[in-house]
Every structure is written in structure tokens, then in C-alpha cells.
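Morning!

As promised:
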Amino acid sequence: MTEHTVKAFDEDITRLRGLIAEMGGLAEVAVQNAMDALVKGDDALAKKIIEGDKKIDALESEVDKLAVRVIALRAPMADDLREVIAALKIAGVVERIGDYSKAIAKASREIADRKRFEPLTLLPAMGELAAEMVHDVLTAYGARDAALAREVIAADRKVDNFYNSIFRNLVSHMVENPSTISTAAQLLFVARNIERIGDHATNVAEMVHFAATGTYPVDDDL
Amino acid sequence: MEQDRAFPVASLALAAIASVAMGIAGAPWWLAFAVFLVWAGSLWLAVAAPPRAVEPVSNGTFNRDDMGEFIEHAGTPLLVAENGRISIANKAARNLLGAHVLGQDIRVAFRHPEAVSLLERGQSGQAAVQGLVRRRDIWILNFQRLTDGLGVIELLNQTAEADISRAHTDFVANASHELRTPLSSIIGYVETLREDGGKAPPEMRRKFLDTVLSEAKRLQNLVNDLMSLSRVEAEKHDLPQEELPLRELVETAARDAAGPDRQDRVTLDCTGGIAIRGDARQIEQLVRNLVDNALKYGAAGETVTVTLRRLPEAEAELTVTDKGEGIAPEHLPHLTRRFYRTDPSRSRASGGTGLGLAIVKHIVERHRGRLDIQSKLGQGTSVIVRIPLVEGGEADTAPEGLS
């Protein structure tokens, strides 16, 4: 990006981008840790994720304040305005990703008898895909890379397919073993949360595309 | 320089006193004034052209451009951060993180919480960062504070080290997993047969017994492969001494690997008169593994070509080519890893143990040879093995004594 005549504006935008990246880094690690906590049944890690979410929330409000201040004081135009608007929206979405990780961490404490659940071997693979999407979309944001953003959007289909197969798997598991329904239901929520993480990564990708090019990517998911 | 322009107060005072003295002594006032002017003028000239002061030699303070040039070609990624922004990134760092990080907030380049907290603290220190570029890589981020707000960041790749230690644990985990899978199905089927007490229809019993047999054979193959792998690994350092006529060995082993059913799918094209020093059983196993892989993963019904040539640089070259779907480039570097599979479900279905190419690699290494795998997606794969010949060896005609 070319330098701005008003140096303070340049600094504000850089700081805004830094804050978003920091939030993203926290959310990315939260997703990975949540999957680890789920698979290993690590309650201490789950607790850490739940507490770590506060930091993401605090950063979100910081981004909000800064973005509003930039708009009010500097009245940005064209790509600068897009940048600020995108930052505002991305912060909200990344915060949601953090919340979903927290929800997975909470659910992981409710799951008993891990060895008996086949979906527990599918969920980490699904989580890995979602975490990769979050990672890639943040890289795309840092690099203002619209092509990478489109790749992330394309990857969401895989996460959705995973969700569908885990859903079927869990439902048949519940029918066969009614005694484990509460655990299976928790796992279903976890799968749902991962699926939502994928969707939100897609949303961020759309924002990145918008900030970089001024248009939204064509949505062929009909 | 400041001292060059110093006002020569003393000299001017002397000139002034001289002029006044001339005036007192009776000289006309204009003469005294003219003398003063000339005197002062000469002083001004002398001061204006002072002897050039020797410039102090720089004691190593770099400006920013020097610093950038200095680190530009370093092999490790290096960055300079100034007030929370990246002001310099050398070539390695730009390749790793992308050129966009220049001028950006540090957090855009390193968003991992560990890195962010280290850099925010502003004190020298290290942080381990997982997933800096790709999700599984591990980098050590080494931050060195220079002055307030200025610091150097060095990145060290630790992925390989972590990989090695993971490979050891993985091997044990994989091996036990691979051994357990056939065992559980054997136990399952046998239990069913026993509990049922002979009431099941004979064809169903036969089907169960067939499964038990095939799983037991798979287990046997696996144990055999594991044993040969560890044997080859153990013998890796002693060069085999036996002199082998390669052609017969390769032809027999290739036919053997194909078995009666797949015999017509193998095309042999072997030159005679090639002798290497080797271990007959291991070379046989190498050919068997390669031909078996090619038949298994090549397209059904397509032929597999086995070629044996003598290269001018005194090497024997064995090529096994299939016409299959090929192997994606990202898999190629890992193919010889134990239990590495490009498509686990297909490999298991065809009874693969995941050890074939690992064994091949060790055998080739023991024979001081080279293993190349070339593959084009959609066209097929060629595995090429080159092994040095016995000097002047014509094993087919007259076996020479060991030298």
C-alpha cells in the first residue's frame, strides 16, 4: 500500500491490522488447542482456552474503538475505507471463532468414555481442516491475497462434507447405543461448532477479498 | 565543523590594538583603519580555509540501509523491527513470510500469541512458534533488543528436529497399530465361528475362514517385512561380498512377484552379463517389492516393464515402470518412510504393509546404489535403481575370484 500523506493515518491502519492479526493468532491457537483438549480429554487445557477467550474479546473491543476513531477523525476513502470496514467486520467474526473454540472446550469436559466413539477419530481431521482454513485466511489477510482467500472459500465444502458424514455417523451411533446419547449429542455440537468455524473463516475470506479488490467473490454455493 | 568556524577573537583583538597604536603614534586614521581591515581580512582568509580535519573513522555504527544490505543474503530469516513495525526483512525472511510484511505491524507477520507476547515485552528472548507458515512447522523466534523500540528477529527452523523425534514414536505407534488391525479381525471371526457351534451354513463358514486366513497372512507379511527391515538396517554398513549375475536374479524375482495370475502383465527387457556385488536374497526382495508395487498400484491390466541395462559409468540400472495414475509430487519425498501411504485405504485393501519402499531404500543404500522415483500424474511411475558393477565383471561367462 502506498504511504499516506497523513502519517498518523498510516500508523492507525497499521495498528488496526496488527490488532486483527493478534486476534487471529489467538483464535487460531484456540481452535487447535480445543481439538487437542477434546481428543485427549485435557481439562486443564480446556480451562486455559475458556480463559483465553477473554483476551480475544478485549482485542475485539479495541479494534472497534480504533476503527470508529479512524472513521470519525480521518474520514478514509476508497481502499482505506474498505480496509477499515473489513477490519471492523473481521474482528467480529474472529471473535465468534474464539467463542466456538470455547464452546468446544466446554463440551470436551462433558465427554465420557472417549475410546468408544468412532467419530472422535473423524473430528480431529475435521478440526484440522477448519484450523487450516483459519490459518490460511489470516495469512491472506496479512498479504491482502485475494487468490488465497478464494482457496479458503473453496475449502469450506470439505468441512461441510465432514460435518454431514459425522452427523450421519453420530445419529446411527445414538440409535444403536441409547446409553451414550448425551455424549454423542455433545460431539454433535462440537461437529456443528467446527462447521461454524469453517463458515466464519469463509466470511473472513470474503471480507479479505472485498478489502483487496472492492468486490465480493462470486458465491457458487447454491 | 564547529571548530573550523570559531571566531579568532585573540587575533582580531591584536589587530585592533595595533591599529589603535598606529593612530596614537600619529598615523592618519584611514591608514590605521586600512591596516586593520587588511589584517582582519587575512585572518578571515586563514580561518575560512582551515586545515581539513581528519574525519573520525566510523566505529561501526550502521545506518538502516547498511544494516539491510548486511543481512540481506544471510541464510536464516532475519528481520529488523522498529517501533512495532517491520522495517527490514532479508531475502530469506521475505521468502518465508511473504514480501508484504515489510512496513507492516509485527503482529501481521507473527500472530502466534507466544511471539506477540515476546515482542510486546520488548526484551531479548526466545519463543517457540508452531505453524508460522504451514500448520505443522516449528520455528524458534529469537528476539534481540538493540535500543528502545529497535530489535532484530532471527528465525530458526526446528521442524526437522521435531520430525525426527516424532518419527521414532510414530514408528512404534504405527507398527503396533498395523499389527493390531489384522489381529482384531482374526479374533472377531474366530470368536463368531466358535460361539456359533457349527450351525452356520458351510459357505459362510468358509468365507469367515478365508478372511481369517488372509488376515493371518497379512500379519505374517507384516512381521516378515518388519524383520527384513530391521535386518537390512542392521547390516547397512557392511558391503555385501557375493558376486551376483543380475539378469537371472531379476527375471526370476520379477516372475515370482507377479505370480501365475499376473504373469502376462510383466514385460521383461534385461541385458545379460551384468554382475554386481550384492546379497542375492536382498536383491531378490528389492525386485519383488518394486514389481509388486507396480502391479498393485498401476492401472489394472496395464503392463509393467522391468528393464535392466548397463550404464557407461559402470553401473547397473534397473527400472520398473508402470502405467498407473502416478504419484503427486508432494508425496515423492516421503515415499520411503515407513508406513507412509499416499492413500491408506487403497494400500490396506491391496494388502500393502507400508514397508515395501522403506526396505527397498535400505537395500539400495547397503549396495551403495541410488534410488530414484519419477512420476507423472496420469501417466505412471518409474522407479530407477542404480548399483555399481563389479569391476570388469562378466559373471555370466566366467565367475572371477573375489578380489
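Helices of chain A lie at 7-40, 43-74, 78-108, 119-143, 146-176, 181-213.

Hope this helps with the figure draft.
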